[in-house]
Amino acid sequence: MKNKIIGMVCTFVAAILLMPNVYAAGTKITVEKAEESEKYDTLSDAIQNVKEGGTITLEEAVDVPTTIDVTGSKSFILNLNGKTLKGVSGQRILNIKEGTVTITGRGTVDSTEAKGGIYVYGATTKGGAAGHLTIDSGVTVKGVSPIVVSSLNRKDSYGAELNVMGTVEGTSTAGVFVHGTIKNTEDPTEFPEITVSGTVKSDTEAGFAQMGGATTTITGTVEGATGIVIKSGTLNLNGATVTGKGAFGEAEPSGNGYNSTGAAIQIESNVGYAGNIDISVSGGTYTSEDNSAIVEYTDENTFAIDNIAIEGGTFQAAEGKEALSISSEEEEVFTNFISRGEFLSGSEKSDVSAYLISGVIQDENGNVVTPVEPSEDKGPDTADMNVYGLLALILLSGVGLTYVVRKRMN
Fold it and tell me: Cβ contacts of residue 195 below 8 Å, gap of 6+?
């Protein structure tokens, strides 16, 4: 009897072990749904099954061996939950072609061993479905080409959006790269929209490289061998901190990417790109450790700057370098584009008087200010004279009255 019971137990255990392991099949990723949650082992399956407005949560570190395409118009949250999402092959981690992805949860997206991190694409026609990406505060995206804004047809990218509130760090590449093929031929003014309130940086390249058209607003921090490189589109810098940490480089135009100068802001006009450059700076600090704070130059045949305005900020060049290095001084946009700011070469004033708007001056400390008109001493006005005259009359009358009284008493 005892042997029979033991045999039954062994048979039962064996049956359990040989059953398909339903629970072990998905343990790494949780997809929250309206009434329940499901678990998956691959991010691809999780994204395919998440519903509109749903949340995907990593329960442990997840590797991505092949590129995952995000398509469809749904919006969802990818909660890293303090874990790492890692690309482990010669491919990208995510291609966001449509829909809205918000990455949150104080974790890391790591493309160090991959070909790229996250690519965001706009529509190929105006008004079409586009990709939208938000990197939440506390999230780090790092590695090779950690974030790239690109085009599916190598010319158009309508409606794409990127919002960086966390940290993006390029290793051997730019932190954020806007692909140079973006020209939006149907409407060259409606480019992808990018907002940076967090930190974008690179160890060896530009922190932020805007080759193709985009409309970018930066209020956060950017640093790299060159801080920012722009060849196309709009750049609004509002209280940003931008630093070029690399060695001095000559301003040499490139038909494929850029040649780093070490500037905080590097502006290149080049016939092969969308152009339509519009730059405004209002407050912030822009520093080059080995060159001018701003370096502007062109190829031989192109000038692509539509507008530039500096309304404040500190522009700190390396010792022996001018705050601004402008090769196109004869162009009208450079005749009066500075209304405020501090411009320094090392610890000394860097002269920018040639670029000032009417009505302002640069003081001995390098600050551009509105001069204070000296007051002129014109003496008392008519009203003052009337008051003074009345007081004198009263005093004289008092003196006369006193004299008469005293005389009669005597």
Answer: 162, 163, 164, 216, 217, 218
